[in-house]
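Structure first, sequence second, as always.
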């Protein structure tokens, strides 16, 4: 896939006939390696950028989720303290009667 992408980016034709001999590979080495490296570099840059965006998105969501949890806990603490204070007032008033 990297080879084909490299050929596309370099606007080259792909090799039509392939022979599995050392002589053929040594004669066509640059026709194979250059598009392969260009395609690999392209996918490396694109995929690493997408992974960066994904991890950044995950991190932001986790921070937002933790912030909401903390705000909810703090709100529940305030409500709980208020209820404790009002219950103490009512229990003190009922003991006076």
């Amino acid at each position: 896939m990297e080879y084909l992408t490299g050929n596309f980016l370099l606007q080259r034709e792909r090799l039509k006939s392939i022979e599995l001999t050392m002589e053929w590979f040594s004669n066509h080495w640059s026709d194979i390696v250059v598009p392969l490296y260009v395609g690999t570099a392209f996918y490396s840059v694109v995929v690493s950028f997408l992974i960066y965006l994904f991890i950044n998105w995950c991190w932001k969501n986790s921070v937002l989720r933790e912030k909401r949890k903390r705000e909810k806990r703090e709100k529940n603490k305030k409500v709980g303290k208020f209820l404790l204070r009002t219950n103490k007032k009512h229990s003190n008033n009922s003991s006076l009667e």
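Margin note: The radius of gyration is 34 Å.
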